[in-house]
Structure formats: structure tokens, C-alpha cells
Amino acid sequence: MINFTKMQGLGNDFIVIDNIEGNVCLSTEEIRQLSDRRFGIGFDQLLMVESASTRDVDFRYVIFNADGLEVSQCGNGARCFALYLQKKELTNKKTITVETNSGNLVLTINQDKSVRVEMGEPNFVPSEIPFITQSQAIEYSLEGQKMGILSIRNPHAVLILEDIDAEDIETIATNLQNSDYFPESVNVGFMQILSRNEINLRVIERGVGETLACGSGACAAVIHGIQLGLLEDKVEVRLKGGNAFVEYNGDTVYLSGPGEFVYEGAVNLRSGTS
User: Fold this and answer.
1) ω into 130 cis (within 30 of 0)
2) Distance between CA atoms of 239 and 36, rounded to whole angstroms?
3) Nearest to residue 57, comparing CAs of 19, 87, 95, 22?
4) For the domain that residue 244 is a member of, what is the CATH number?
5) What is the pLDDT of residues 91-102, one digit of tens each?
6) Where are the alpha helices (DSSP H) in 8-155?
7) Which of 78, 99, 118, 230 would disulfide-bridge 106, Cβ 3.0–4.6 Å?
8) Does residue 273 belong to any structural domain of this protein?
9) What are the DSSP calls for 175-238, one per residue?
10) 125: helix, coil or strand?
11) Residue-level pLDDT at 273
12) What is the mean pLDDT of residues 242-247?
């Protein structure tokens, strides 16, 4: 039996597994099975707590999408990860440094139990996103659409629409995700600017589909809006699952918002029961 905790951050839902002892090893197919919302547990991402590889960090933060593939970033998951560590008494720190396969994140638990995540610096270099193009730009035109393309330790395309509920965003996202422009696919965000400090956002994540919230997608959208001179450096991001807050100082981007516990459970992979 594998013990897990179901959590959610603005409707972006996860299971979190304590794998500090290194006893849990799940195959891609097993993760897909667990993520199934009818025949498994159901989640957008699976998060694992593992031992850090160096002394200057506290834990290793491992993330798998619902399709079973490991990814490098999940901002909403990071907030839940921090609250999990605190609740399970794995640490008594309010500021926690975790390592991922693309670098370190700093997670700060606030008095109101919201969490501020230092998401790092955005990367605009096409070959490192990765994104196939001839030259770097603030805005690109692909598939008849203008968009910003950047990495928040995972690839994002950001499109600005007048009404994000009036367009066929599923088709636009699918075409981009399956195109040759993105060798590792791409998360596609659709931003509607309400004011210089507030946006609506929908994100269709690679390997998952549309989620109720995407933390790194929120960061990517705000950064692109700031680059175009359309947004201030502190923005409230309205997502289907609730509101997050993004700050970008031209260097580091920060994401703040809630995380909540849903239930505790255990699953037997051999029988598929939980």
C-alpha cells in the first residue's frame, strides 16, 4: 500500500507522497492509472517528497504530470508541497528550499497559511525553452496567432485575447502542442487583460489538458504582459479555481496563493483499489 495525501491549489489538484526513504518507484503507466479520475484517484500532478542531494537544500521536489512524465516546475504544487512538509512535521521551517531537476525553489509559508514561491528567473532563449525559431523576440507569430514564448522552468506560450471564453482555445492549444515548434510540447496560456493590475487566465497544460489553475502559467502571462508594457509589476491573476498573485521585478518572479488539504488515502496498485 502507498499512502498519499490529496491536495489542491486553486483547483489544480495533486496527490503528495512521502518518498524520503526512497521506497516508492512508480512507472509511467502506474502514474497514468492513478491519475485516472474514473478508475484511479484522479489528479493533475503527482508530487513526491524526496531527500535532498546537497546540504544547502531541505528536500527534493519531484513532479509528474497526469500522463506519467516528469516535469520541472509546478507553482501551485509547490505551495501544496510546502504546506504538506509543515503538516507532516517533516520540517519546522517557515522558509524552505527545495531542489527540482531544473534548479532550486524557495517556499515561504505566511501567517495566513498562504505560500509565496520564488519561481526563479524566466528564460527567453529559444533553444533553452526549447522552441524552434530563427531569432529571439518578445512576440512571435505562429499558426496565425501572436504570442509570447518563454520558460518558467517549463515551456509556455502566452496569447492575449479580448475574451478568453469566446475563442476555441482547445484547438489553438492542441495545434501548438503538436507542432514542430516545440520539441517538448508547450503549456498554452490565454490571457484577457482587465486592467494593469488584473487579468483573467486559462491554461491548457501539456500532458494534462486545461486545469483550474496553473502557477507557472500565471507567471508566464504576467511577465509577457509586462514585457509588452501592458501590466504593472504586481498583478492579480483570476483563474477558474481562484485568484493568485504574481510579482516580477525584471529578474525574479514570485507566485503567491493558497493550498488546501482534501483527504488522506492509501492505494494498492496491484488491485487498483484505494
Assistant:
1) yes
2) 23
3) 95
4) 3.10.310.10
5) 999 999 999 988
6) 28-35, 75-87
7) 118
8) no
9) HHHTSTT-TT--EEEEEEEEETTEEEEEEEETTTEEES--HHHHHHHHHHHHHTT-S-SEEEEE
10) coil
11) 52
12) 97
Q: Is 214 a catalytic residue?
A: yes
Rounded CA separation 97/21 (Å):
19
Percent of the chain with pLDDT over 70: 98
Query: In degrees rounded to 5, what are phi and psi of residue 205?
Result: -90, 145
In angstroms, rounded to a whole number, what is the distance separating the alpha carbons of residues 159 and 258? 26
Task: Choose, from 25, 80, 214, 219, the residue flagged as catalytic.
Answer: 214
Is 192 inside any structural domain?
yes
Asked if the model's pLDDT at residue 203 lies above 70, the reply is: yes
Q: What angle do CA 112, 98, 238 make, to 5 degrees?
A: 45
Whether 244 has a pLDDT exceeding 90, the answer reads yes
Give the model confidence (pLDDT) of 95-131 as tens digits. Answer: 999 999 888 999 999 999 999 999 999 999 999 999 9
| C-alpha to C-alpha distance for 87 and 49, rounded to whole angstroms | 13
Residues 217, 219, 225, 226, Cα dihedral to 10° = -170
Q: Is 219 a residue of the active site?
A: no
Same domain, 31 and 50: yes
Say whether 22 sits in a helix, a strand or coil: coil
Within a domain: 274: no
Name the nearest CA neighbour of 271 among 19, 39, 65: 39
Q: Which domain holds residue 93?
A: 2-120+258-267
Residue 202, C-alpha cell as written in the block: 486559462
In a domain, 49, yes or no: yes
Please compute, for residue 213, the number of CA atoms within 13 A of its CA located in the half-sphere on the CB side. 28
Task: For residues 131-138, give the mean pLDDT.
Answer: 97
